[in-house]
Amino acid sequence: MPLIAVLQMTSGIDPEVNYSTLEAAAIEAGEGGAEILFTPEMSLLLDRDRSRAGPWIESTEPERISDRLARLSAEAGIDLAIGSMPVMGANGRWANRSFYIGGSLGLRTTYDKIHMFDVQLSNGESWRESAAYEPGTQVVTVDDTPLGRLGLTICYDMRFPALFEQLGQRKCDAIAVPAAFTVPTGRDHWHVMLRARAIEASAFVIAAAQVGQHEDGRETYGHSLVVDPWGKVLLDMGGEDSGLAYCDIDLSRIEEVRSQLPSLANRRPIAN
Fold it and tell me: What gap in Å lies between CA 46 and CA 49, rounded to an integer?
């Protein structure tokens, strides 16, 4: 029964400070026997001021940080599912990119967020991720992790069931959904959507989240979750504090659920 660690963060505008938080968590989680550490979206830099963030993103620093994370993974003896950090992508635009780094194998798999967060909320919050970020185009899974096949998604992706259907059809055993969720949407949508995605894919959902008041002025919802394939919440880290938590993952639950409710096997094509 693999043990995982989930890091709930209040990331800020200094990547080195954020890296130090992540480094300490990886060492602690490795010493605690966890096999994978999951971190939130924008773990290494959370800054809505694009003119301030741009020089770092467009430098060689993100690549250097990813190399440091690979060394950290090996030294701490733990795989790292880095929720995301901003990097230079294609066509001179940025990408919101997840990294899966396997300490023992040196494995490094990346996923670029597909669905851009372009919204105008009733409380006045306005977000236009597509103004700076290039959306990804590829569904990505990582095979042979301590949890089996792991699907990679990021935050707003959770609102698009077709992506999770594809991950379910690929027989993912677990799906990572790192996030920096807003408070208004989090209160009403976070738990219900993540439980639904777990049920639809008949897979564990692991959602490490940002929490609290951030240096760039935003507030995030927190409540990092682990949900089992039946939709049962196994871990909820609450909406107040950052920190590290652990959860045992009983992989036998996947086959139990799929044998009782074989919705993936029963899927039928629907004519237009």
Answer: 9
Residues known to be catalytic? 41, 113, 155
CA atoms within 13 A of residue 101's CA, in its CB half-sphere: 26
Whole-angstrom distance, CA of residue 57 vs CA of residue 96: 11
Other C-beta atoms within 10 Å of 28: how many? 16
Distance CA 190, CA 86 (A): 23
Distances 24 to 7, 11, 19, 20, 176 between C-alpha atoms, Å: 11, 14, 9, 6, 21
Separation of CA 193 from chain center: 15
DSSP state of 132: T
- Domains recognised in the chain with CATH numbers: 3-262 (3.60.110.10)
Helix or strand run (H / E) with residue 234: strand 233-236
Distance, CA of 151 to CA of 172 (rounded, Å): 6
CA distances from 104 to 59, 72, 76, 111, 130 (A): 29, 11, 10, 20, 36
Structure tokens at 130: 């597509």
Could you list the pLDDT tens digit for every one of the 272 residues in the chain? 999 999 999 999 999 999 999 999 999 999 999 999 999 999 999 999 999 999 999 999 999 999 999 999 999 999 999 999 999 988 888 999 999 999 666 678 999 999 876 555 556 555 567 667 888 899 999 998 999 999 999 999 999 999 999 999 999 999 999 999 999 999 999 999 999 999 999 999 999 999 999 999 999 999 999 999 999 999 999 999 999 999 999 999 999 998 887 777 667 677 77
Residue 271 to residue 229: CA distance in whole angstroms: 28
